[in-house]
Amino acid sequence: MPDAPYAADAAAATLYDDHPAVQALSTDRHDEPADFDAFWTATLDDARRFPPEVRRAAVDSGLRLVTVEDVTFPGWGGQPVRAWLLRPSAADGPLPLVVQYCGYGGGRGAPLDHLAWASAGFAHLVMDTRGQGDDTPDEHRPAALARAGPDGAHVVRGIVAPATYYYRRLITDAVRAVECLRLEPFVDATRVAVAGASQGGGLALAAAALAEGVALLLCDIPFLCHWARALQVADRGPYAEVTRYLAEHPERAGAAMATLRYFDGLSFAARAGAPASFSVALRDRVCPPSTVLRAFHAYAGADKDLAVLPHNGHEGGGAHQLRRNLIRARALLDAPPAALGASPA
Questions:
Q1: At 113, phi and psi to the nearest 5?
Q2: What is the reported pLDDT for 332?
Q3: Catalytic residue among 138, 151, 173, 284
Q4: At a CB cut-off of 8 Å and minimum separation 6, what does 167 contact?
Q5: pLDDT tens track of the chain, all 345 residues?
Q6: Residues near 315 by Cβ (< 8 Å), separated by ≥ 6?
Q7: pTM, to two decimals
Q8: Is 89 a catalytic residue?
Q9: Rounded-to-integer distance, Cα 330 and Cα 230, Å
């Protein structure tokens, strides 16, 4: 598992957000907008107007056993989104595909950062993050937000309305990554997994709910879950960025909170049914454990498991968690597709 943003920050000294909070939260009704499904249906219908054309260009990575390609596919509004595609060079026949989403504040990086999944026998797509990496611009970025590197404060970009919010575009990119790549001839469309940590975990959870044909979800320490609770508890990372923004602009708080209801992982969890593995770090100050556990409890799929990391912060277990995910995903390599519960539709 690639390093999560803020992974180097000190973990909480105590279990500041322990399980009793989750027990209380589990009885709370999640406040979801009545038009949540209509909003996402309209958003994705608009994106699906653009043909799922995937462009692939060979990359000389210096590797012999792994083939690397630079991929472009149409995301939100048909805008080009970049990704790395890695797969075993000696593969014969369609492969299971892992679509990976990146953590907050970073993009796809370099292909040599992402060798584990192809080495294990999978095709592996690493989606760039619009505006956060260097290769996929967010074309709707207001110039006034260009204050913190190439991206600006993306977690609050357009937050006063669901139609303009940054994560509407990024979640659409995540869904289209699955829908476009699963049509490629080297992919077995019945064996597609979505994966990520932190922001990537939140995007994977949304894609599991919204994209067609997801067979497995690997959701580590996810961001974008239970906003109302997270903004009360998190003292660093993107939730804290939202809190600071609302402190500076209290007149926008009502509109912002109304917007975030359309982008909450609790709603996506209730609509996803693929087999799933989650992880939660109980000393995580970036994605508070109660928010992750709430999403896990809300997840509608019956085949789900949870790795509880009592001593970890937002690094989320690192290579130990990656090994767990590789083992969990063996079903995509070894089991007949019908046994996975995936639908090719």
A1: -75, -10
A2: 84
A3: 284
A4: 224, 263
A5: 555 666 556 555 445 565 565 445 444 567 899 999 999 999 999 999 999 999 999 999 999 999 999 999 999 999 999 999 999 999 988 999 999 999 998 899 999 999 999 999 999 999 999 999 889 999 865 544 444 333 347 899 999 999 999 999 999 999 999 999 999 999 999 999 999 999 999 999 999 999 999 999 999 999 999 999 999 899 999 999 999 999 999 999 999 999 999 999 999 999 999 999 999 999 999 999 999 999 999 999 999 999 999 999 999 999 999 999 999 999 888 855 444 444 333
A6: 3, 4, 7, 8, 281
A7: 0.90
A8: no
A9: 33
Active-site annotation holds for 61: no
DSSP assignment, residue 250? G
Look up residue 179 and give its two tokens.
Answer: 């829908």
Which tokens go with 304?
A: 């789900």
Could you confirm whether domain 19-340 is CATH 3.40.50.1820? yes
Domain parsing of the chain, residue ranges? 19-340
Query: How far is the C-alpha of 247 from the C-alpha of 254, rounded, in Å?
Result: 12
What's the Cα-to-Cα distance from 241 to each of 176, 218, 305, rounded to whole Å? 28, 26, 30
27-54 burial, b for 16+ CB within 10 Å, e for fewer?
Answer: eeeeeeeeebeebbeebbeebeebeeeb
Annotated catalytic residue, options 198, 267, 277, 279? 198
Catalytic residue among 114, 124, 226, 314: 314
Q: Which of 111, 65, 50 is nearest to 84 (CA)?
A: 111
Which residue is it, tokens 């080009």?
A: 80
From the centroid of its chain, how far is CA 313?
19
In the block, tokens 């110039």 appear at 143
CA angle, 129 then 130 then 134, to 5°: 80
The H or E element spanning position 277 is strand 276-281
DSSP-derived 3-state class of residue 8: coil
- Rounded to 5 degrees, what are φ and ψ at 109? 65, -145
